[in-house]
What we know:
The structure is a single chain. By secondary structure, the protein is an alpha+beta fold. The protein has helices at residues 19-27, 37-45, 88-97, 115-118, and strands at 2-5, 8-11, 48-54, 57-66, 71-79, 106-109. Helices cover 21% and strands 26% of the residues. Strands 1-2-3-4-5-6 form a six-stranded mixed beta sheet, with helices on both faces. Strand 5, helix 3 (88-97) and strand 6 (106-109) form a beta-alpha-beta unit. The longest helix has 10 residues, at 88-97.
Amino acid sequence: MQWRKKDYSLTDEPTKLDFEAVCSLLHSTYWAATRSRQVIAKSLENSLNFGLFYNGSQVGFARMVTDYATVGYLCDVVIAGEQRGKGVGKWMLMQILNHPALRRCRIDLFTRSAQDFYRPFGFGPHADHSLVRYPPGYRRRRASAPATA
């Protein structure tokens, strides 16, 4: 699918993604700064990906890990710094949440710094009984220190 808003376009077509731009965007974040290109490539292969473009250049990215029926995990949402504050992140998120393949899914999201951005879209705290399992060797972020991914 493809959506347009003035000079911006958003697509979920895998062949339209600019892999170099995706790596650059992810490497600019606190959560994926050290993620290898190989891991990024594998994550793209196994996700529903969204590329945000401005006048043909990729300036944003998000991906959804999902079963397309009951649950989706929204992750790696990033907009290039020079494009922030223009409302395109909100527009991109609305298109993702209204995607026909995701409309019936519960959407999970983990963010340490953008809760205020996501709350108006219906995101809230997980239930008290939420659990998470990290695989051996997973580099967990400490709450008191900046994350390095």
